[in-house]
Amino acid sequence: MPKKQRRFEITEDNSLYEGFKTYLVGGYVRLSVDKHDRKTESIENQKDAIELFVKNNNENPARKFNLKIKDFYEDKGLTGTNFERAGFERLLADAKAGTIEAIIVKDFSRFGRDFLEGSNYIENIFPFLGIRFFAIGDHYDSMAHDAESKRFEVRLKNLINDMYAKDGSKKIVDVKRLSQKKGSFVGSKCPYGYRAEWIDDIRTLVPDGETADVVRDIFRIYNSGASITEVIDTLYEKKVLRPGEYKKTGHVLWEEGDKHYRWRRGTVQDILRSMVYAGDLAQGKFEQRLYDGLKDRKTIDKADWIVIEDSHEALVSREEYELASQRVDRELNLDIANGAKRNKSKIRKNAIYENVFGDVIHCGDCGKRLGASYYQGRIKDIRNYRYYCRGQYSYDERQCKNKSITEEKLLVVFQQVIRDTLKASGVKAKDLTNANSKVANGVIDAIKKKQQELAKKKASLEDDVQQAYFDFKKGRISLEEYTVQKNRLPYLEEQYEKQIDELDMKIIHANRDKERQNKFLRSLFKAQTTRKIDRELVNEIVDSIYLFEGERVIINLKFKGGDLYGA
């Protein structure tokens, strides 16, 4: 379908903007995950509404300002119940950078459905950034003369949007659980080897042709005594595409132009351990109850899964499934009695387990982040890491060259590179520690300032209650409103005290980090190596490390010359 042509084009005639304040606008549009969303909420319709709003404003002879669209920021198929969205984060970044001066949305629900966060952005964050906020459908302009009087209305609408999202969440959960108990498959992606069909009003899994045969082969080969690796080798030799590539191409077997990769070990193990292939449907393994304030997905105990036996045609017999799944469990060293969780070795009190270079070290050939293996001393209980490219173990087109280096060797090279860079720049140890302390003290001062603000708010609570009492006596507020404010006093005092205590701990940790980092910085000018370095500090001063054959290393630092905190 050809892309819909914009009905209104924003003219670039600069004379249009002369004599008036012109706001550079970021138009924010969001397409909800709600399947019942009105068609008028489409991305294109939202853009049309914003462009029409801008056009009508600029053509109004009585206007007090002009609007000029700088860019549109889109989030497609994302929930409005949180603000972790790529389009919104880009919008906020541009607002902070001053690239845009105003934000326009079709209405508050397109902006977001979280009452607290939505109100915080509109009432606090955007005004602090100097951003003018427009919600077209709600006739809201944050800098209009009546904006203050509409604050209650804004909060009410945000609260209604929040309640709508929570109510919708509960209804969806209830409907899903009812469907699951009836044996209807409610997932968006069918297990490999199956497709979904509606049979007697039940969404039923049915075998999916050749992929079903692949699953049967996996069980047959594994149950004949082959290892997981041998199963993967067989699939690769037969040119069977992985489930991901099958979904993209629709090809079970490799064809010209397809990418042919070896199957992942975990994918094969998951198939061999899934009861769906024995004809049993297990659902309700995860839960997200927005109506209870639970936005993150929660894993449900196996005992509480909704399991419907013999809900669909099995691909293997129950005996074949039991034989394969139990063997995989044994090989994975799983404790079935404890919910199929891996046995964990005891972590000793003074152990040093940190993989300090794990976030920044990459393969110089394929560019992927390196894997890390380790051996652990029994006396000092320190993990000694070795970094290697996982690609060397691939047997397909992704295979990379064999290369590895120990953390100890890398640490020597790392410190020498920093020493040489600093000495060439004429930087002294005192310069580094002073710079580090200045930044650390700035962080600590900011925390202390926050503490002082919280202390002032806590101290003003009693005054607020007294003022509420006077307002009640003078008939400005009702007895119920006064009682609510009075009863909330102990709770609010406790919350402020808790936040102040948490900030005390942050100050303690910040001082410890400052001293530890200063010790490391001073050690850079000494001959011996040191273990007084941590992952956080490495991430702060290293942009990337690339490893090549023969333990050749390239280290890219974040600072140039003597500017430790430069880009």
Fold and architecture overview:
This protein is α/β, with parallel strands linked by helices and 567 residues long. 44% of the residues lie in helices and 16% in strands. It folds into 3 domains: 14-167, Rossmann fold (3-Layer(aba) Sandwich); 194-342, Hect, E3 ligase catalytic domain fold; 429-524. Strands 2-1-3-4-5 form a 5-stranded mixed β-sheet, with helices on both faces. Strands 14-18-19 form a 3-stranded mixed β-sheet. A 3-stranded antiparallel β-sheet has the order 15-16-17. Helix 1 (43-58) links the parallel strand 1 and strand 2. Helix 12 runs antiparallel to helix 13 (479-523). It starts with 20 loop residues before the first strand and ends in a 10-residue tail after the last strand.
Give the key terms.
14 helices, disordered N terminus, 567 residues, five-stranded mixed sheet, Hect, E3 ligase catalytic domain fold, three-stranded mixed sheet, Rossmann fold, single chain, alpha/beta
Secondary-structure topology with pairs:
Elements: E1 21-31, H1 43-58, E2 65-76, H2 86-97, E3 102-105, H3 108-111, H4 115-129, E4 132-135, E5 140-141, H5 151-181, E6 194-199, E7 202-207, H6 209-223, H7 228-237, H8 243-249, H9 265-273, E8 281-283, E9 286-287, E10 298-299, E11 306-308, H10 318-331, E12 334-335, E13 341-342, E14 361-363, E15 371-376, E16 383-388, E17 404-406, H11 407-424, H12 429-473, H13 479-523, H14 535-541, E18 542-548, E19 552-557
Parallel strand pairs: 1-2, 1-3, 3-4, 14-18
Antiparallel strand pairs: 4-5, 6-7, 8-11, 9-10, 12-13, 15-16, 16-17, 18-19
Helix pairs in contact: 4-5, 6-10, 12-13
